[in-house]
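Dear colleague,

Thank you for sharing your sequence with our group. We've completed the structure prediction you requested, and as agreed, I am returning the results in plain text so they can be pasted directly into your records. Please verify that the sequence below matches your submission; if there's any discrepancy, let me know and we will rerun it promptly.
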Amino acid sequence: MKRLDTLIRLHKRKLDEKRQKLNQLQAMAAGFAGQIQALEVAAAEEARVARQDPETAHTYGAYVQSTLARRDALRSSLADVQGEIDILAADVTEAFKEVRRFEIIEERHATRARRTRIRRERKAEDEIGVGLYQRARIRA
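Please find the predicted structure tokens below.
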């Protein structure tokens, strides 16, 4: 039983580590998504300014090119992180199933031990009852 407790703790620790890494990757993905959104808002603002001010319009083309390159790089990074998230989410699910499997085994052992203990107690009580009955019968 002690070995089973150790296995459960070990697998729970591994599960927690995987969950923590998954949370970090999800935070990273959210950061990339936020940067993409901020970049698109900034690009829309820059386009509005370029339409209103003809003097800055000549630099708008270079700005658009650098913005598109940055957006593509962020999208690529987001896709890579999302792929890692998908793989790690499957690992977390598998690790959770493994922990649960060991917990079920532990529960079954505990149930079996409890039933055995109850059976022994009932047997002892029955023996006491039979002994009391026999003594009462002899006295009568």
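Summary note from our side: The radius of gyration is 34 Å.

Kind regards,
the structure core
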